[in-house]
Amino acid sequence: MFIRGFAIYLLSFFLLQPQIAFAWNATGHRLVAQIAWTQLKPQTKIKVNTLIHRLDDAYGPVNFVNASVWADWIRGHDVSAFDQWHYINCHLNRPVSRCWLNKKNHIIWAIAKAETVLNSQKANTFEKAFFLRFLIHLVGDAHQPLHTVHYVGGRFPRGDAGGNAYKIHAGRYKNLHAYWDAGLGTFQRHQIKQQANEIMQAYPKQRLKNEINQLDPRQWVAENHAIANAAIYKIAYKGYPSKHYRQKNKKIVDKQIALAGYRLAKILNHWAALSKNTRAIGGR
To answer: What average pLDDT does this structure show over 175-185?
Structure first.
């Protein structure tokens, strides 16, 4: 009874506590995962659910969509060893093509490590479960443009930490990063399925077919680096986002959420098709 009660407590805490805003906020990550879930094949859903629930004893039961915020949630428990996995600081005004070379512990490196573990014949189910949760989250992070760049120059000689130090006035959002994390303030935390459906209607899979097939995280970073250069830093420091800014960039937000969901599903469907049967995942 105690174990069951404790698990219920953990689940309640996980679902009801406000999430720490490090990337797309909790709603943004759930939107990505919800879109991915609608695109998963039946056998893939079985396999990912098997692994998602492998960590239930430690964190309480959680479904695929809510597991998407786990990698941020554990950071609130002083688990900071993986903080650098969530982003890569490519200089905003420099070519992006070499920024990930000779570096480790950034988002491109972490996604590759997660995929290696999932495809490993040596890793056990606990290890696969851990890295599956990270993969779900990090694919979302890699599609938030401010997780690929930082602005260096002027008042930010060491960079603005992906817009976190770039102050703006946008209601409750006090910096550029937080504003984009919240989908420019448009995400609705209690309407995940409805919002996901609306995004998929605006950006159907067939329309994005060629882009969905680009599954190299280096390409995602280059894509979002270009977005940041072209669109994001169009608000003056301590300025106010205009109506035009909000309308134009809301389309970018929705497209990136859609791409993240579709690409995540493609990665997981491919993995499931190549992996052994569900009971044999990890070989233990």
So the answer is: 97
